[in-house]
Amino acid sequence: MRAALPRRYDLYAEYEDVMPKSKVRRKKTDYTINPASRTPVKVKGGPSPVWYVTIMLGFMLAGLVWLLVYYLANDKIEWMANLNAWNFLIGFGLMVIGLIMTMRWR
After folding, report:
1. Residue 19 burial (10 A CB sphere; 0-12, 13-18, 19+)
2. How far, CA to CA in Å, does 93 sit from each of 6, 70, 78, 85, 98?
3. Structural contact between residues 60 and 91, judged by C-beta atoms closer than 8 angstroms
4. What are the tens digits of pLDDT across the range 17-72?
């Protein structure tokens, strides 16, 4: 708090009437979780069949193998060398197909 000064030395005296007082905010102390939001949801359908997981992993591994073979044996396999940069699209495309399949996996 400021000490009482004569009016001519009080630099903030002219602003006391202009500046509004700030409101005091109370902190919210209620941190309880709404029990309605914690109710379990029934998931439709059961787990994915074994063949689905096999195909999903097969796509991802096939893409990885495609890229490895392209890097290691590009000059020995003529038709793969002719594809040039399309090998990247094929390899990563196979892996992306497997990745997309993981979204439907249960």
Report:
1. exposed
2. 81, 14, 21, 13, 9
3. no
4. 666 677 777 776 666 766 666 677 777 788 889 999 999 999 999 999 999 999 99
Distance in Å from the first CA to the final CA of the chain: 65
Among 20, 1, 2, which Cα is nearest to 11's?
A: 2
How far apart CA 82 and CA 67 sit, in angstroms, is 15
List the structure tokens of 76: 């020995």
pTM of the model: 0.59
The Cα–Cα gap between 68 and 65 comes to 5
Place of tokens 């094929």: 90
Half-sphere exposure of 58 (CA within 13 A, CB side): 6
Instruction: Read off the DSSP letter of residue 105.
Output: -
CB atoms within 10 A of CB 91: 20
